[in-house]
Write a structure and sequence with these properties.
The chain is an alpha/beta fold and 304 residues long. It contains 14 helices and 9 strands. Bound molecules: nicotinamide-adenine-dinucleotide.
Amino acid sequence: MTCNSEPVRQSMTQKIGFIGLGIMGSPMAGHLAKAGYEVVGFDLAEPGLAKLEAAGGRRASSIAEAVEGAPIVITMLPADPHVEAVVLGEGGVFEHIKPGTLFIDFSSIKPGTSQKVAKAGEAKGVRVLDAPVSGGEKGAIDAVLSIMVGGNAADFEAARPIFELVGKTCALCGPHGAGQAVKAANQLVVGGTYALVAEAIVLMEALGVDAKAGLDMLAGGLAASRILDLKRDSMLARDFKPGFRIDLHHKDMGTVLDAARQADVALPMSLQVAALIQAARAQGLGDRDHSALLAVIESLNGKA
Ligand code: NAD
């Protein structure tokens, strides 16, 4: 479903409290401010606050200041502990939010944590959506993110004007936590694809084949993928500048394995991908792009 298929317009003078102005949150908050919302942002770090002001938003000096009186509150935080602290913790969002507020969490976290947040929100009359995104920093800057949403249909429709401003496609995937479940599946496929492209490069080079010509062939056949399209040249050049950091993908594979255990399903490939990403961290590649799985496969084969 495209985000702008059935636009439902809201008054653009509404206040939005936006917490987490990092790589993703900063451009997203900027789009909302430029569209005319009164965006009041909070972050522990200075750069995101300054960028929000440059985009026409306002900085807050606390979570309370960002949230108070806002009919819409948004978070875009790194991982589960940050979301739990910011939303449920002392002095957090749910201490200051008013009943009826639409609360959208764009962070990628465990489905169970999103369900816990939704339950706490329900007790306060807050309308909660989990809405993790795919598309990376470039997708956030270009406002073309894919947004995977969990929650109820009326809240999804109420949030659609926000999704339209930051994304290109969005879908209600099911009840609370369903957006996170789809995001976990997304990260599993992305991680697995990187691992297999890395093995394909190592195999072709070891056989004395022109790996660039080989990957060009793969990209035109059944093995084609967005990863081959976007990343084959940088992988062949061993350029692992992030992008999406191994550390964040490690967090996402933790979500996959945790969800699989909870659902009582065996996912052998997920275990392999998680182990390779763990190995990348152990090799000091945590802050490198996830395409650095190529360096892990090379080190397994004695190539430093
Ligand atoms: P980031 O680390 O750049 O930004 C997170 C921001 O949250 C930081 O600015 C940090 O200072 C702030 N923060 C942390 N704790 C806080 C607190 N207690 N109070 C206020 N602010 C706090 O991370 P990011 O790359 O923007 O990713 C955010 C989420 O989006 C993650 O869950 C990530 O997995 C997901 N994601 C990232 C990408 C990507 O390409 N970077 C793509 C899709 C999804």
